[in-house]
Amino acid sequence: MTEPPSVPEQPAREQGAPEQPTREQGAPEQPAAEPADLISRRFVFREGAFQPLAPVPDARQRLLVADSFLVAEGRARAVDLHHDRFVGSALASGYTDRVLLDTFWAAALEAIPPIHRWFPRVELSATASYDETGTHRQPPRHELSLLMRLAPEPSSTAVLATHGGEDPRSIPSMKGPDLVRLTALRDAARADGIDDVVILTADGAIIDGTTTAILWWRGDELHLPPADLARVDSVTARTIRVLAQATGVPVVEERATPTDLRGLEVWAVNALYGVRHVTEWRGGPAVRSDPTRAPQWQRRLDALARALG
Q: CA 94, CA 110: separation in Å to the nearest integer?
């Protein structure tokens, strides 16, 4: 059995900073709340156990694959789908040890405490190797790691904006290689009160958000971008699609521009927040904000959560 990562005690809370949950008797010490603007802890998986990494990242290391999911009081939804996406992407990136991937995944699930709300991230990275002359050596050294983060408070609404530049993604269908760049775009937008920015094709069709999948409603039909627009296979969007089909809701793939969504109900969905209805598209279409349908679908998503153990 792999012991949960031991996280060092956190410094005293600064005035105005969010208060952290109290650690229960016998539970492992917890990291302070994330996301990126707060503290997180990363653990590398070596010799069948997790070891804390140095706080300063290795500049030679690049993230190949990542996957995150919400764990609330030891329960999560669609964990098997996250596993399959992570393992499939890792193998597609050139990693060959399928047995170790599965061992790492099982150990990561076991390491997540069954209390509080967590948003852990499993990672596969590659570190470049150099010989004594400074010449780059192949192949790179792969490393599996677990980033432990306390989840932020739930949110049911989102403000969007359109990304104004070229497509920032280098490998659109894989979560990991572009994560730093996409997160930086989102974080810059947050400074202006925008929750996510939407990436478009060269001719203006909606593809994806930097950290969310974009869905919209035309009457009682659920619409989403067509499958031929390369993007990460969103586990949450896929789950919503399955729920829709199971309940008789028509699902339509539509190549649409932001302008085409004027007056429609728009959703931004992901593993962290589930369904958020869009209240504003900054500089874009005037969207219809319906506060009733999204909560119903969020409850359907929540009902799918299962214990990790």
A: 26
